[in-house]
Amino acid sequence: MRDFIIPQYPPGDDRDMGTPAKVGLPVTLIVDGIDVTVPEGTSVMRAAAEAGIMVPKLCASDNMEAFGSCRLCVVEIEGRRGTPASCTTPVMEGMIVHTQSDKLRRMRKGVMELYISDHPLDCLTCAANGDCELQDMAGNVGLRDVRYKAPEGATLLNHFAPRDGVGVNAHYTPKDESNPYFTFDPAKCIVCSRCVRACEEVQGTFALTIEGRGFDSRVKAGAIGDDFLTSDCVSCGACVQACPTATLQEKSVIELGTPERSVITTCAYCGVGCSFKAELNGDQLVRMVPYKHGKANRGHSCVKGRFAYGYAQHKDRVLKPMIRETIDQPWREVEWAEAMTFAANKLRGIQEKYGRKSVGVITSSRCTNEETYLVQKLTRAVFGNNNTDTCARVCHSPTGYGLGKTYGTSAGTQDFDSVEQADVVVIIGANPTDGHPVFASRLKKRLREGAKLIVVDPRRTDIVRSAHVEAQYHLPLKPGTNVAVVTAMAHVIVTEGLFDEDFIRTRCDWDEFQFYVDFVSDPRHAPENVELLTGVPAADLRAAARLYATGGNGAIYYGLGVTEHSQGSTTVIGIANLAMLTGNIGRPGVGVNPLRGQNNVQGSCDMGSFPHELPGYRHVKLPDVRAIYEQAWGCEIDPEPGLRIPNMLDAAVEGTFKGLYCQGEDILQSDPDTHHVAAGLAAMECVIVHDLFLNETANYAHVFLPGSSFLEKDGTFTNAERRINRVRKVMAPRNGYEDWEVTQLLANAMGAGWHYTHPSQIMEEIAATTPSFAGVTYDVLEEKGSVQWPCNEKVPDGTPLMHVDGFVSGKGHFMVTEYVATDERTGPRFPLLLTTGRILSQYNVGAQTRRTENVVWHPEDVLEINPHDAENRGINDGDWVRLASRAGETTLRATLTDRVAAGVVYTTFHHPATQANVVTTDFSDWATNCPEFKVTAVQVSPSNGPSEWQESYNEQAERSRRILTAAE
């Protein structure tokens, strides 16, 4: 099986070199009289390209293995008979190659004639005119006339349906317009198979095939009766990008024309951090194309990053500031100056009345590092307190705590390239095919090469079993029992002597290890003794532990299914213990890797968004750390930690917290126990929402500051592998300001006197005050493309792999992981366990993706329920059901599936009409207050439709979003 191989290029070189780069001993050959030295295994085609000689091609592309079907790339090699295809011919020492001769020109022209004979000659009106490889190659070989035509009776692959009896012996094959983002025109297909191979080798979905023979052959999506929308196609765009004609074409290009310029930027969706070329006509964005030099995505993409950018131009965007005195009043549009004066006066008045700690901020994991840094600076340097929190704590703070305690740093250990050297991959509480699809494609490629997979998840996700990929072990644990499963795996490794003693003696604290061994060896942690608790068969758990410990390079990837628990921090510690036990840390192919949910979760944490930590994870109580910022900011820093979001809401209900600046977050939809969040917001006297849209939190806001999308700003994001990527302004901010400028306006209205003129100056301040960012500048990022922190004098090129020679903390620390059951228990009233997650087409609270065509795939949240539980309750597929917990209730439609075990139900939280978090409780992680989204005791029963609460909520939301017109 051929698979995607990462291409390598000189920096900035976007040429398609035809075939992938290879690694090997140098080989020297002569191509058209030019000496070329390339690694052994390199194709003649690529060797020629390295010499600046581009051999004509149609079926070849450098992100796929050579195919050799088009016969356009033939060359002559001295001493060898015939004209071999240069894409499939490896170089040899001393080889002499000729890419141009009369014979080759005649052959290539003949090949092109055959292709063109079955292709409509409508170049002037074709959407790919000027951006078509077939057109380019026809010109390259000098084709000016076509002598052939399709045989009588062959399938009429034409734009125009037969009429008036014409073509009665043929049948018309129409365009497939089913996909909302691209069209498939079989009339223009040259059957080069590039789209099929891209779907297999790059994406790993295997949704496309070639059906028919000769002139009747064509690309087919899915099975008989399927189209691109109903097939397994995940709309990643790999096929569209691979297509050399207009067969597969973005609808945006058809509508807006071929783009004329491009800007390289970073995707603002998940934590993979894909690089894209935003291609434009003037300031009109035409398409987003994955950038082949992007070190996180290597030229691949998913449906969200590739196509779901239309929200930036959506009619719902608010572009003018708005204010109101009370939340029952309609909004009134004002100018920026009036909005800032209004907000500043409100906040100053609150602090004068209730004290300086009565206000706070919430930073965003969707905004840039520079913007997030300024928001936490606002509360510390202007408000005079540490009341700053972020959704990064709401989802991944146990990562920071657990890895900080065991390894000494609060981030993942590897880069994404590392997965290609993994032999055993453990996925715990993560769904990469939906939540991190570009990484999942690289993972699936490695699995197809023979790596083994262990999945620990209460739900059977796609990675457990899908096209050409199947996990060796799926451990379907009961929600809330992560710690018991991880500790049982450690029990097997320790009691069976499978641990790496040399690594532990050299790299870890041996005394702590001895104490840990005494704990984990206790028979109560044996798989057989926790089977009833976890629901995982003891034999499977033992076998999985043995595989991880003995299968070679073992890598662990985990997600919110680990962290969003009352014992989230304990589970992260347990995962860190497993890696240390087996020596799977500090080299390629191993490690502990959190998969971050949003684009800048890592950066939001790095920038000091927590109430107890300044940037760089340094505690606010430390005088030497405070002194750095007191000198830089010219103010005194409060040594007392501030309030987390739930503490802010509690204090608001109690009457001591009265003002909030919330940038880029929608806590009413995303945070647990919606009723409590609403009560806290309603009790505040000034809520400032800074966002693109009037979100659910804005229902309770007094000031709305319009935000700018990622396309309208400069800055940086930090992805899940600690990679700092540039975000570049593609177009001018539609609201007039980038988000960092809005924060500066508010700070200055409060008397701050900030004078930043560009985000690069903010990064200079970050680098000057944060050791792990000391070597990061915009010039460095422009030169290197991206860097992974730590980046400083010791490691000026950044740090792809952490803990190579030793842990940041010196010695690795084993810690006891005692299982403590959550206080959220099932019982007669609430016998089922609800767990929540995401889906491929939607993102977080859906504010962006719901305003794109992605709603075609997921128009509403649904409840997955096992058929056994549904039958017991008289529930059929598609029925409305009532989902109730101790905290609240909502209604949604049911989907019957065996993806979830009996006793477990699952839903997403992308649509505010459902408000899934109205049923989640306020239980949280013992160390970080990370909410326990993944374990809620519920009951499910038939319903007639939306609940009274949903109807009243929708009515309140509509009233809250009234905007006065100019006439009013």
From TrEMBL:
Claim: Iron is one of the keywords in the record: yes
CDD domains: fer2, MopB_CT_Fdh-Nap-like, MopB_Formate-Dh-H
EC number: 1.17.1.9
Domain of life where this protein originates: Bacteria
Keyword Oxidoreductase: yes
Native source organism of the sequence: Paracoccus benzoatiresistens
Pfam hit, one: Molybdop_Fe4S4
Domain 4Fe-4S Mo/W bis-MGD-type as annotated: residue spans: 260-316
InterPro entries in the record: 2Fe-2S_ferredoxin-like_sf, 2Fe-2S_ferredoxin-type, 4Fe4S_Fe-S-bd, 4Fe4S_Fe_S_CS, Asp_de-COase-like_dom_sf, Formate_Dh-H_N, Formate_DH_asu, MoPterin_dinucl-bd_dom
Protein name: Formate dehydrogenase subunit alpha
Domain 4Fe-4S His(Cys)3-ligated-type: 103-142
Lineage per the UniProt record: Bacteria, Pseudomonadati, Pseudomonadota, Alphaproteobacteria, Rhodobacterales
Chain residue ranges for the region called Disordered: 940-968
Limits of the 2Fe-2S ferredoxin-type domain: 25-103
